């Protein structure tokens, strides 16, 4: 079953044609990695899935994007609801200036939930899912800024999970982290796919190889090749994919 399906997606930043007719079907409960040289459109395409590009002036998008069979660019879509369904984790951890607990509870409170026991249960569950609970359970009232970078990133993941999205988008989630924190995030991604569909942008090809089931290779705004990660890395069909994965450019 597919979680994300796109048909002939084009995106323009003003006159600049950044995405050139991208069609894909990304499977549910799988990890898909987007790879490709800098500036090829990976993040732009990822940001289409929760309409983050709406925030940028002068952007024009054509084509169709369905998430869990709903056309997310239809007129009657509420973007707030879409972003609950499609969560996002950014490159740099961006916790709020609040306690660890309140960071995770934030989305629930914004949603109008006030049941204390419910919130406590959901915060604990989300921190456990993000493999952070054991490290923070005795200091939930402390500021999120007291955590290490890697812990802050797992906190941001917990914050995203707390509102029970179906899809989690990750834009280079480990690129600002040390190797041990990176390994933790990778393990976590692997675990999370049981419950979520995950799309990750990464520059790190070993990482794509370790965490993803499917890989999409982008070049100059086009999707060049998409398939099982193993196949893309061992026997790509397109010469450009071959050149990229063997380090000949990018
Ligand atoms: N807000 C914007 N306004 C104008 N052009 C943009 C904007 N954001 C991105 N671009 C351009 O669109 C193209 C694709 O950028 P994008 O960030 O999606 O690439 P990327 O593959 O994610 O790159 P990187 O790996 O370096 O993050 C680039 O040429 C970039 O300069």
From TrEMBL:
Q: Which UniProt keywords apply?
A: ATP-binding, Cell membrane, Membrane, Nucleotide-binding, Phosphate transport, Translocase, Transport
Instruction: Kindly state one GO CC term assigned in the UniProt record.
Output: plasma membrane
Tell me if Protein biosynthesis is a UniProt keyword of this record: no
Q: Which residues form the ABC transporter domain?
A: 4-245
Q: Which PROSITE patterns match?
A: ABC_TRANSPORTER_1, ABC_TRANSPORTER_2
Q: Name one GO biological process term.
A: phosphate ion transmembrane transport
User: Where are its TM segments located?
Assistant: none
Pfam families (alphabetical)? ABC_tran
- Would the keyword Translocase turn up in this protein's UniProt record? yes
CDD domains listed in its UniProt record = ABC_PstB_phosphate_transporter (cd03260)
One Gene Ontology term of the molecular function aspect: ATP hydrolysis activity
Location in the cell reads: Cell inner membrane
Protein's membrane topology: Peripheral membrane protein
Q: Which PANTHER family match?
A: ABC TRANSPORTER I FAMILY MEMBER 17
Q: What does this protein do?
A: Part of the ABC transporter complex PstSACB involved in phosphate import. Responsible for energy coupling to the transport system.
Q: What is this protein called?
A: Phosphate ABC transporter ATP-binding protein
Q: Which organism is it from?
A: Nibribacter ruber
């Amino acid at each position: 079953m597919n979680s994300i399906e796109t048909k002939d997606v084009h995106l323009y930043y003003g006159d600049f044609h950044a995405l050139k007719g991208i069609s894909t079907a990304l499977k549910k409960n799988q990890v898909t990695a987007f790879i490709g040289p800098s500036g090829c459109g990976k993040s732009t395409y990822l940001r289409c899935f929760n309409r983050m590009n709406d925030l940028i002036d002068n952007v024009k998008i054509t084509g169709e994007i369905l998430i869990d069979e709903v056309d997310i660019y239809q007129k009657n879509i509420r973007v707030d609801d879409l972003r609950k369904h499609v969560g996002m984790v950014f490159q740099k951890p961006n916790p709020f200036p609040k306690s660890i607990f309140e960071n995770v509870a934030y989305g629930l409170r914004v949603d109008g939930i006030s049941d204390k026991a419910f919130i406590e249960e959901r915060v604990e569950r989300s921190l456990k899912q993000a493999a952070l609970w054991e490290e923070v359970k005795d200091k939930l009232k402390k500021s999120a800024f007291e955590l290490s970078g890697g812990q802050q990133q797992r906190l941001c993941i917990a914050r995203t999970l707390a509102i029970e999205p179906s899809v989690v988008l990750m834009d280079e989630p480990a690129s600002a982290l040390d190797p041990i924190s990176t390994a933790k995030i990778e393990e976590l991604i692997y675990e999370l796919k049981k419950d979520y569909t995950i799309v990750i942008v990464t520059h790190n090809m070993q990482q794509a190889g370790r965490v993803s089931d499917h890989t999409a290779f982008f070049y100059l705004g086009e999707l060049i090749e998409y398939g099982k990660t193993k196949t893309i890395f061992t026997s790509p069909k397109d010469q450009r994919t071959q050149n990229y994965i063997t380090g000949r450019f990018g």
